[in-house]
Amino acid sequence: MDKLCIIGVGLIGGCLALAQRQAGFRGEIVGCDRDGSALEEALALGIIDRAEVEPARAVAGADTVVVAVPVGAMEAVFAAIAPHLDPGAVITDVGSTKASVVTAARSVWSSLPPGFVPAHPIAGTEKSGVGAAFPTLFRGRKVILTPLPETSPAALERVRTLWRDTGAEVVVMPVAHHDEVLAATSHLPHLLAFTLVDTLARMDDSWEIFRYAAGGFRDFTRIASSDPVMWHDICFANREAILGVLTRLEEDLDTLRAAIDRGDGEYVKAVFQRAKRARDHFSTIFIEQP
Ligand SMILES: NC(=O)C1=CN([C@@H]2O[C@H](COP(=O)(O)OP(=O)(O)OC[C@H]3O[C@@H](n4cnc5c(N)ncnc54)[C@H](O)[C@@H]3O)[C@@H](O)[C@H]2O)C=CC1
Ligand SMILES: O=C(O)C(=O)Cc1ccc(O)cc1
Hints:
By secondary structure, this protein is an alpha/beta fold. The chain has two domains: 3-173, NAD(P)-binding Rossmann-like Domain (Rossmann fold); 177-287, 6-phosphogluconate dehydrogenase C-terminal like domain (6-phosphogluconate dehydrogenase C-terminal fold, Orthogonal Bundle), CATH 1.10.3660. It has helices spanning 11-22, 36-44, 55-59, 74-81, 99-108, 153-164, 175-201, 206-211, 215-221, 228-237, 239-261, 265-287, and strands at 3-7, 28-32, 50-52, 64-67, 90-93, 116-117, 119-121, 142-145, 169-172. The strands form two sheets. Strands 3-2-1-4-5-6 form a six-stranded parallel beta sheet, sandwiched between helices. It has a three-stranded mixed beta sheet with strand order 7-8-9, with helices on one face. Helix 4 links the parallel strand 4 (64-67) and strand 5 (90-93). Helix 4 (74-81) packs parallel to helix 5 and helix 7 (175-201) packs across helix 11 (239-261). The model has no long low-confidence stretch (mean pLDDT 97). 3-(4-hydroxy-phenyl)pyruvic acid binds at residues 96, 122-126, 186, 223.
């Protein structure tokens, strides 16, 4: 890899650029963003070597292009870069949903380039923008690649190496499985956090409620500070899977509510015990991060 082009110089694009530099990448990192101030900030912070507002200029001569914009903007970016990519270029993305990104790519390229490798780092924060970027975000975290039948083995290896160099553990899975799993573990918790905070904030005594919030409230709602545009896009991009898991949760919440209402302590305790056992078990294996 000699020239890495990152389109969307925000939190994830910025973290990737910093992580690549820290891993010893000596080539050129070109940043492209529709927001000129993001580019200026990235240049000032030394995160990118060159800034381009025009996607066509940014991708020219790049051997690897990473699209790191909100998932709703992927199609427009693919359309803007498609005619200007080098023939052997590898194109990848960091979007939180994968079927929607693949659909966006298929609507731009009548036949998908073999260099196209959909990807998703399962690492982030509630902050956004390049100013919040840091080089160690991906260390010890998972990155999911969802290669397609058209994806060439060489392109898959390039993207695997790109992420492995950041300290991430790379796993491969089918697109649909990715979207089902992430709807449950990431998209649903974000919707719950946003809704909880919104509901409480609209109560008459919200000032009093937030003033006495304890650690549990802070832990549970941190992700409600995440970027609304990004999460709006994710909701609609992974609509079916999100609605499926939301319905399941609604049913379980309704049952719990009914149990509390009729004073069924055994039922309530059984739910909490099962949940505690599951959380304690999985936290030792998966959930706690370095
Ligand atoms: N924030 C997080 O924790 C994670 C985010 N993701 C995914 O990464 C992607 C980027 O997210 P963040 O870096 O958090 O967002 P961000 O808001 O920090 O950065 C996105 C950047 O894309 C630029 N942009 C938006 N539309 C554009 C367009 N049409 N052309 C060029 N630039 C455009 C924005 O100006 C911004 O600088 C999203 O697809 C998100 O789903 C993936 C893993 C974690
Ligand atoms: O901040 C957190 O805890 C997150 O969950 C960040 C995050 C947001 C979106 C993703 O697609 C992956 C990770």
